[in-house]
Specification:
This protein is an alpha+beta fold and 451 residues long. It contains 17 helices and 15 strands. The chain has two domains: 243 residues, Bira Bifunctional Protein, Domain 2 (BirA Bifunctional Protein, domain 2), CATH 3.30.930.10; 102 residues, Rossmann fold, CATH 3.40.50. It binds histidyl-adenosine monophosphate (HAM).
Length: 451
């Protein structure tokens, strides 16, 4: 039997790469516009990093990390998320000393040993940003705005931004006590895991994947349960801060949240601050958010993030605020398919197919193809002695914009026939000027297509 990719993992075949690249390109472009710089971290990390950041009682750490011992007996994990690694890299690279406030972005695979289902994989990809070194609410607003702008630039229209605040650590301790009091009478009805979480980290009951615990926790907390997508609404209104949330905020955290809401209003980003939702990672403080998209079914969070003001210190650095988000690329691509026409980039033709009339002309053809490539023009040719007709069919299949036909007569006249398949036109171009002419034509066509 042929071998298959592991459950929850998948290949990205060439036909899908155009869309992946377009999303990656857009995310990088928009992030750079906001002043974020790319960084890359290893796929494997010391297990302790995630125990200390994501949290020992979270599902990610307890059940979903791919963990193994290396030959030296060190406990290694395949990274389940990017934030902890970025903070580690920030500290290890001394950016807190050399740069201070740093705006960073990353893109790559993450690994969680979850039960695979639609929109939930064991290897998936995230595009994420982390703004480290500021406690300003303007940075929270910038991060949410950047997230929405990237998703919109990728063609997602029907988005709902859920916004909430989990308060500072002192607020969380107080809120946990209140939630415990409310849950205590139903303790026996919780699953075994949640009974363990009750004392250690009661907020984890809120995101238990067991529907009974989940329902009980949200019902008991007096909060409306997380709702589905409704499309972005106007600015968030002025309900009491923390309304409907299990988190009770101190005056400072309320003021911070209010400033984030106002800044988002000023940026024209709509949000819903009434529906509460749980974040499955322990490092969050204050602002948390989730962006939901249409067409994703149960796994409709296309991006999520929030502020983590203690994490840098908890990982051995100075006390400094930080905030970020990560978008799931697979979910983003799936949401794109929902009611969206293929982009111009996908529809339009590009590049040149150099067809040769006889196999003996392969050498001259190869020279010309290389010339085109060195001028930055995508160029293809046949290496298998196909008939001219078959080569023309191949050019069409590869969606080339030009076909250049090289025959004996052309070589003698030091010229080549160039057909533009988009314009249905044809001309004869001197061989010496061939590469420059095609490069110029391709550039003009690309500019017209993006105008
Ligand atoms: P997260 O909510 O665990 O947050 O993941 C962020 C996004 O990654 C989700 O909204 C979803 O789109 C995608 N995602 C997560 N798990 C899977 C999966 N198993 N299969 C497919 N897609 C998935 C974080 O990872 C935080 N590090 C975000 C953050 C950055 N917070 C602050 N900075």
């Amino acid at each position: 039997m042929a071998l298959q990719a592991l459950r929850g993992t998948s290949d990205v075949l060439p036909e899908a790469i155009t869309r992946w690249s377009a999303v990656e390109h857009t995310a990088r472009r928009v992030s750079r516009c906001y002043g974020y710089q790319e960084l890359r971290t290893p796929l494997i990390e010391d297990a302790t990093l995630f125990l200390r950041s994501v949290g020992e009682t979270t599902d990610i750490v307890q059940k979903e990390m791919f963990r193994f011992e290396d030959r030296g007996g060190h406990e290694i994990v395949l990274r389940p998320e990017g934030t902890a690694s970025v903070v580690r890299a920030y500290l290890e690279g001394h950016l807190h000393k050399t740069e201070g406030f740093s705006k960073l972005f990353y893109l790559g695979p993450m690994f969680r040993a979850e039960r695979p289902q639609a929109g939930r994989f064991r290897q998936f990809h995230q595009f994420g940003v982390e703004a480290i070194g500021s406690a300003s609410p303007w940075v929270d607003a910038e991060v949410v705005t950047l997230c929405v702008e990237i998703l919109r630039a990728c063609g997602l229209a029907d988005l709902t931004v859920l916004l909430s605040s989990m308060g500072c650590r002192a607020d969380q301790a107080r809120s946990a006590e209140q939630l415990r009091e409310r849950l205590r009478p139903s303790l026996q009805e919780l699953c075994k895991d949640c009974q363990g979480r009750f004392d250690k980290n009661v907020f984890r009951v809120l995101d238990c994947k067991n529907p009974a615990c989940h329902a009980l926790a949200w019902k008991t907390s007096g909060s409306p349960r997380p709702t589905g997508s409704h499309g972005i609404r106007g600015s968030g209104g002025h309900e009491e801060v923390g309304r409907g949330s299990p988190f009770v905020l101190c005056a400072d955290c309320q003021a911070h949240f209010e400033q984030v809401r106002q800044a988002l209003g000023a940026a024209g980003v709509g949000f819903d601050d009434t529906a509460v939702f749980a974040r499955g990672l322990d490092y969050y403080t204050r602002t948390v958010f989730e962006v939901r998209a249409q067409g994703l079914g149960a796994q409709d969070a296309v991006a999520a993030g929030g502020r983590y003001d203690q994490l840098v210190e908890e990982l051995g650095g100075p006390s400094m605020g930080a905030v970020g988000f990560a978008a799931g690329i697979e979910r983003l691509l799936r949401a794109q398919e929902h009611g969206r026409a293929p982009s111009d980039e996908q529809r339009s033709r590009r590049g040149v197919y150099l067809a040769i009339a006889q196999p003996a002309l392969a050498g001259e053809g190869f020279r010309l193809v290389q010339q085109l490539r060195s001028h930055g023009v995508c160029a293809l040719m046949d290496y298998d002695h196909k008939s001219l007709k078959a080569q023309l069919r191949e050019a069409d299949k590869a969606r080339c914009q030009f076909v250049a036909i090289l025959g004996e007569a052309e070589v003698k006249q030091r010229a080549i026939t160039l057909k533009d398949l988009e314009q249905s036109s044809q001309e004869t171009v001197p061989l010496e000027a061939f590469a420059q002419t095609v490069a110029q034509r391709a550039k003009t066509a690309a500019a017209a297509c993006h105008a």
